[in-house]
Amino acid sequence: MATAINQNSLGEITGNVLFYSKPEPLAPELHGKMGVKRIDGPFNFAKVGHAVPLTVTEFALYGVCGPVIFVGDDKIPLAVMGLNGGENMFITEAGVFEAGVYVPAYVRRYPFVYANDTAAGQLVLCIDRDAEFVVEGGDMSFFDEKGQPTEYTQNCIAFCNDYEAERQRTVSFINLLKELDLFEVKEANHIGVDAEGNAMAPQKIADYFAVSEDKLKALSPEKLAELRDNGALQQIYAHLFSLVNWDRLIAMAISRANQAVQAS
Question: Which of 123, 192, 199, 233 is 20 to 30 Å apart from 164, CA to CA?
């Protein structure tokens, strides 16, 4: 599968494709009478996405909302959307994103996804057959009466093509950072206070990779100019600035915990 991500916690991200439980190659023989229906909670499926893949051009867009981090040997960039595994703090009970929160393209392309056909050496467009809004009939059909992709499906294919191009651009960006040895391991910590207002021992929230500011400063002026000119420096700073939003997520978590106590 393309963009293989599965989430358990921020420190345990492995395996299958996040959100997609039953991907099937989109074909008129299988899905000729199927389509997508409009529902009130279109992002219910993403409530379990506490860390969602990002492409490099989305760093600045999401970075004003939450932390942008890197994980695993491949240094996959993720938008952190919650502090607990399986809990997206930016999606309401009604299944929509909070106002003003950037919705990653990875989420917006659902239920479509590309899979690698290794035998044919090409990508195959799939849909998640278990998606809540993929049904017989539907408001937006996948195929017309001649078995050809509808305008809706063609637009989705174009979106997936654009996403795949951005994903490849992201891989190149990550490889550049690896070549320059700019990554370092970091921790997100929370220091609470007790009932008397005294600072408590730090509580570790997550381990992750980030760009090292010291390593970045140590680059030669020529290399920094190269990063500036190819646009990489802008994305690096968007990532670094985003890390202040750990405090936002922590504040949201504390506020919700207090509301739950008061409600009980």
Answer: 233
Q: What is the 3 state secondary structure string of the chain? A: CCCCCCEEECCEECCCCCCCCCEEECCHHHHCCEEECCCCCCCHHHHHCCEEECCHHHHHHHHCCCCEEEECCCCEEEEECCCCCCCCCCECCCCCECCCCCCCHHHHCCCEEEEEECCCCEEEEEEECCCCCEEECCCEECECCCCCECHHHHHHHHHHHHHHHHHHHHHHHHHHHHHCCCEEEEEEEECCECCCCCECCCEEEEEEEEECHHHHHCCCHHHHHHHHHCCHHHHHHHHHHHHHHHHHHHHHHHHHHHHHHHHC
pTM above 0.90, yes or no: no
- Cis before residue 77, ω within 30 degrees of 0? no
Separation in Å, CA 258 to CA 184, 197, 252, 263: 34, 16, 10, 9
Look at residues 249, 227, 246 and name the one whose alpha carbon lies nearest to residue 236. 227
Q: What is the total residue count of the chain?
A: 264
The string of pLDDT tens digits covering residues 11-37 is 332 336 899 999 999 999 999 999 999
Confidence of residue 189 (pLDDT cuts 50, 70, 90): confident
Find, among 103, 5, 19, 108, the residue nearest to 62 by Cα: 103
Q: What are the residue ranges spanned by the domains of the chain?
A: 7-263
